[in-house]
Amino acid sequence: MATFSAQSTSDEVLAAHDMSGKTVFITGGASGIGQETARAMAAKGAHVVIAARDQAKLDAALSAVTSDAGSEKVETIMVDLASLDSVRACADEANASLEKIDLLINNAGVMACPFSKTADGFEMQFGTNHLGHFLLTSRLMPLIRKGADKRIVNLSSRAHHFAPANLDDPNFETADYDPWISYGQSKTANVLFSVGLEQRFGSEGIHAYAVHPGGIATNLGRHLSEEQSAALIERVQASDPDFAWKTVEQGAATSCWAATAPELDGAGGVYCEDCNVAEVDDQSSQGGVRSYALDAGAAEKLWPVSEKLVREEFTS
Fold first, then answer.
1. β partners of residue 209
2. What is the 3-state secondary structure (H, E, C) of 264-298?
């Protein structure tokens, strides 16, 4: 069985896999590591559905992915994860046009944006990074059940180290807003969502994995000022002197690994980084997953909070 690391690329991770006949649905697939994940999987024969909120960017990504992958098995679908109406419309379209989803990769996200609200009044980062994906995953479950692989990959981040999820005030209605605490809470929620999915659907053969892709220079940091970017780099390097930026190809590798690695068969509800399952570590700033992010009780609490906010029960 191949061994991969922080330097592995998406193509290397997928080299031994034939993805012909598999359907892969990727949010945030019109740029960055989402687009690279789409390219790498399309190159291995997968039918790839790229979801994003901007049709012009989707069109550009479609052209690039089909050209670079040498595949015509790529299509696009519109979704704005900051709008529950858009999420529902996207899911309706997917359920009407697709036969199945083998791999759902919830890749899209926003990072450290100024305080703002989604179309439904949620704090933007929690609303987009968690709630939008929570509802989308729920609505796509009929297709996932028809798939062969039945894996769900939720993009998290080492930023979950910044804060546990405050489920009593997820939308900063009483707490003072801090963009990094908000981002950290949303990334913790992504891990807890993976744990919750595993608790509920693992027995059906549907498995969920949280992924930290690593530090990559993509448009995820588009909301950061020069001063914020410099402060972030200084903070990261101070906590991890060996930190190195990844290429986009290296950044997409752990998503591809979590979606396909045979050693993860039947073993969801874990947090992955550098193409491996991370160790639980409540001290290190250089890696690992905080125990609060894998806490079964917190995952159980997150579920009804999420259902209440999106105003519907998760598909059972």
1. 153, 270
2. HCCCCCEEEECCEECCECCCCCCCCECHHHCCHHH
Select from 278, 178, 300, 157 the least CA-distant residue to 228: 178
Residue 192 scores a pLDDT above 80: yes
Q: How many Å apart are CA 292 and CA 179, to the nearest integer? A: 20
In a domain, 3, yes or no: no
Expressed in angstroms, the distance from the first to the final Cα of the chain is 35
Residue 42 Cα distances to 22, 32, 120, 121, angstroms? 10, 16, 34, 36
The identity of residue 272, as a single letter, is C
Mean pLDDT, residues 119-148 taken together:
98
* Residues composing the chain: 316
Q: Is residue 5 part of a domain?
A: no
H/E stretch holding 138 reads helix 133-146
Confirm whether 2 is domain-assigned.
Answer: no
Give the mean pLDDT of the chain. Answer: 94
In the prediction, which pLDDT does 267 show?
A: 94
**Overall number of domains in the chain:** 1
Mean pLDDT of 276-304: 97
80 in any annotated domain: yes
Which residue in 19, 22, 26, 72 sits closest to 49, CA to CA? 26
Active site annotation includes 177: yes
Q: β-strands 23-27, 47-52: how paired? A: parallel
Of the candidates 177, 183, 271, 292, the residue annotated as catalytic is 177
Cα–Cα dist 286/280, whole Å:
12
Lowest mean pLDDT among 171-180, 212-221, 267-276: 212-221
Q: Of 117, 135, 125, 133, give the one whose Cα is nearest residue 160.
A: 125
Q: Please report, for the domain that includes residue 218, its CATH number.
A: 3.40.50.720
